[in-house]
Amino acid sequence: MIAAQELHTEFQFPQEADTQLSSDTDLEEPDVKNAKLGKGKGGKKGKKAPGEKGKCGAAKGAGLGRVNGHHRENGMENMTLFEVVKMGKSATQSVVDDWIESYKNDRDIALLDLINFFIQCSGCKGAVSAEMFRHMQNSEIIRKMTEEFDEDSGDYPLTMAGPLWKKFKSSFCEFIGVLVRQCQYSIIYDEYMMDTVISLLTGLSDSQVRAFRHTSTLAAMKLMTALVNVALNLSINMDNTQRQYEAERNKVMAKRANDRLELLLQKRKELQENQDEIENMMNAIFKGVFVHRYRDAIAEIRAICIEEIGVWMKMYSDAFLNDSYLKYVGWTMHDKQGEVRLKCLTALQGLYYNRELNTRLELFTSRFKDRIVSMTLDKEYDVAVQAIKLLTLVLHSSDEVLTAEDCESVYHLVYSAHRPVAVAAGEFLYKKLFSHRGPEEEGMPRRGRQSLNGNLIKTTVFFFLESELHEHGAYLVDSLWECASELLKDWESTISLLLDEPMPGEEALTDRQETALIEVMLCAVRQACECHPPVGRGTGKRVLTAKEKKTQLDDRTRITEIFAVALPLLLAKYSVDAEKVTNLLQLPQFFDLEIYTTGRLEKHLESLLRQIREVVEKHTETDVLEACSMTYHALCNEEFTIFNRVDIARSQLLDELVDKFNRLLEDFLQEGEEPDEDDAYQVLSTLKRITAFHNAHDLSKWDLFTSNYKLLNTGLQNGDMPEQIVIHAMQCTHYVILWNLAKVSEGSSNKGDMVTLRKQMRAFCLMCQRYLTSVNTTVKEQAFTILCDALMIFSHQMVSSGREQLEPLIYTPDSSLQAELLNFILDHVFIDQDDDNNSTGQTAHPAAICVCVVKMYYNDYGDIIKETMSKTRQIDKIQCAKTLILSLQQLFNEMLSDLGCNFDRSSSSFCGIKELARRFSLTFGLDQLKTREAIAMLHKDGIEFAFKEPSPQGEGNPPLNLAFLDILSEFSSKLLRQDKKTVHLYLERFMTFQMALQREDCWLPLISYRNSLQAGGDDDTMSVMSGYSSRGSSIRSKKAKPASTGKRKLPEEESSSCSTDAQVWMNREQNVQTPVMMPSPHLTSTVLRDPKKMRPEESYMGVYQHHHQTPMDYNTQVTWMLAQRQQAEARQQQERANMQYAKMRSHMQHAIRRGSGLMEDDEEPIVEDVMMSSEDRLEDLNEGMDFDTMDIDLPPSKNRRERSELKPDYFDPSSIMDDSVGIYLSIVMSTVLNIEKTI
């Protein structure tokens, strides 16, 4: 039987009042707790434990030729179970029925078929024979299958790509579930089939081979889920039987049927026995597989365990929803892999969604709430989203669980740049602030100031103001749109709050609150009409569905009908407030202008035009004037009948402005008179209005070029022109030229217009060039900006796309203009603004300029530098890498010239170059395959540079540039494992044997670089190598096998291509490797290789070309001595491993002597299992976990590791700079080097 007879059953299914949590003692381990509460029942006699597979009933001779089960439908009689499930063409039900029929005929052969099914599903090409099945233990069978694993690929069915293999996983899981369901009434209780399967899966789950471990864990967890379902059905049947028995027994003696009572008693006894059997099976799986694999080294395996335990707790909450099992989910929320943390949250969501289960989650919530709240800032966006959704469910179940501080940590996420996070936070905010309605709110009106929505809108405004992120109003609206769109689209209530007087006793909105309400209203209108997220939250406009298009049209119509009437009133009320007016004037851009005619709203249009004219006359702020200009532009649409009415109003306004400007300018420029401040203000205000309108409207018929050019020329001659007048005159003249260019480009002008445009453009550029020498900095900046725009517009590219007629307009700057533009950059960009002496910043070497630029100008030029660097890499990755390494080499040479060849590697100059190299390496990203060739070329150039110059101190000393290898080691982490070996071989070409023996400080760069190429070569294999486990079913080797006995072999053609490539790369004269260079052998399993690993012939060997061959003088005797020393060290290491193995074996044997098996209490969980054997991959997974008692021991809510996983502040520029500074340094470095070369 599965459990030892003297042990208590692990799974005690609660009955009646036993389902409630009593106290904190419920947090004890499942085995310890249930041992206290258990009934002390032993198993039946004669049953075998999973580790003691039955030897009786061996396979018959007639069945020896069958390897796997045969499906006898659809012409697939000769297909194995694995092939049938993989194809997925037959119904799983029929496949299982065929296997059951085979099991009934000969259970050994059918069970052998099932065993081989699990072996083949793991990707193993071997098969278990009947002889092996009869005479070998599970551990021996698994060891044999491990040796017969296919060595060609690291893929196995659960990890293979393609639609066939994606479907295979679901078919595999379905097969296990159907198998248990079809066998639940008889076969699973035969004390043979389930014992054997559980024993096999338990042994495979402890394998060193990842494929075995992954597949068997998935199978075991799905088997457990199916058994939980069976146990649930048994529990229901027992309850029904008990009720029937009680009902029959309560009858009077005359009506009571004693035979029925006996039948019910017998049925209840059988159900109880079956339930005990299921409890033992589930206990064996839980203790034999789950307890160890939920902390496996592989994230996929951990995720499977957590996902399934969530299913158990939800499916059979009476048995599993207690703190003995919830603790595993709580601990695993600290997992380093986002995939596992995500499974924890989704498992908990299924529990919190059911309000009936909330009482059982109270203790868990109180202890793990802080961790869940912190996960809203998880570095993985998917995890953060699910954490917020989980908190929303917690909030939905009880308002008292989350504190105000907890809620505030979620509130600010509505401003996140990642839309799913923001939407989830918006739903949380809506549930917390808007979804609660008191009895006094039931009778409130539907619309208007006194409506429920009116109060909720004010609440939204209050939240918006308290968040102090007013520039992100569009983000707030977008976050709330999916859950509160009806509230945000209640335009009537919003307008009522702005226009209606407050009721007696009601507190009126403050000016600040009204401004925020108008901004939120504008953002909601924009969201309804554009139907896409604000800038920074979307990858682009998506295609709207038919329903969304209809909603968009309906909203736009409704917006026009409401605001066409209300907007003139709002402008009249707030006409003197620039900020409010600017936002209100943007509303007509979203109108359906046809409504003005069809809805007979012309009088409201006239009122709107009057209000806009008054706003233009009252304000001189650029934002307000440009908003008025854009409103006229939106209303002046020739497709609608209102065009003539709006065009007349616009023309009248512009005529008055231009006439006033010409009149004022004539008086302002009169000779011999000193213009007063009032005249200057009148000219400036009128010029501002004209410039704002000229941006969106063609004012060419008013000939503004002549008057503005005259104004600019006078300013140059007199030198006393107010700077704002000069700036707006330049801008207005620039608009004149652009509108004329647009007219010429459309072909609607004659040849004379092009000649005039050419003269105007050149005269204006000369005027701006003269203003570059102005005393006023603001004027110089405006002139520089306009000149750059003009040079870009009138460059050679303007004749592209069939516009050859514009060739006369091409303008090429002369040398004087180029020099003045460069001087402006040097004088106003590459300077220290806090230092009056700018000469230091200009003459500093490139590294100082790089630091200056990154520190001071990141906010202004970061996007440009980042985009330039990105485009450079897209054009040519190799040349970009060569540019980076060249810049490092030049900095290294400058350092040598300044400090000499005996410099200190701890000096600030060398450390600065090394830090720059580290930042350069960050720019290559995480996808090593995409940058593989570029990184290889970078190392090649770096190695050649390091050995290029011999030592000035003579032979025996390190090369002059050897310290550069220390800088180059910063890029070693970007190399693939096979490329590290190739680069290491290339490095050996430049080394002599004496160099390899050197250990002085001056040779440390070479040693550290070689170590960086050798380290991490087997990181991916470490994650799948198992340490010694104390369970009897694990695979162990009695003695260590030498590396030479491994099964890893390459096909002949692969081996030959590899050697050929090596000859091409290295041009080696002899195929002998120095023992000193020989890496230590590693015992690996090839099925665990990276699925994306490329074969040797696919390596970028060709990037290394032979330049010179350094002679290698090998001393045979020294070589032999070094080899002997290496072998001695290997033996010592092996002896230490054997001692550790013996120690672990003694612990295991001691546990066996105590009579414990798979059901033994997990008082001291194994921490040195498959997971803990890879400390580099998963160290401190469950920090704060007490492995001695397995009680829940909450880690600190914000420990160091947790903070490292939190997402930085979304609006903290310093955090963004820290992640991307390498990019900016690299491009600035390349730019400066090119400038130096040009000079």
UniProtKB/TrEMBL annotation:
Residues 290-375 form the SCD domain. It comes from the Eukaryota. Residues 1022-1035 have a biased composition (Low complexity). It comes from Esox lucius. Component of cohesin complex, a complex required for the cohesion of sister chromatids after DNA replication. The cohesin complex apparently forms a large proteinaceous ring within which sister chromatids can be trapped. At anaphase, the complex is cleaved and dissociates from chromatin, allowing sister chromatids to segregate. The keyword Kinase does not apply. This is Cohesin subunit SA. GO terms for biological process: cell division; chromosome segregation; sister chromatid cohesion. One of its GO terms (cellular component) is nucleus. GO terms for molecular function: chromatin binding. Residues 231-284 form a coiled coil. Residues 36-48 have a biased composition (Basic residues). Residues 1-72, 1020-1058, 1186-1206 are annotated as: Disordered. Belongs to the SCC3 family. Keywords: Cell cycle, Cell division, Chromosome, Chromosome partition, Coiled coil, Nucleus. SUPFAM superfamilies: ARM repeat. It is found in: Nucleus; Chromosome; Chromosome, Centromere. Its main location: nucleus. Transmembrane segments: none annotated. Part of the cohesin complex which is composed of a heterodimer between a SMC1 protein (SMC1A or SMC1B) and SMC3, which are attached via their hinge domain, and RAD21 which link them at their heads, and one STAG protein.
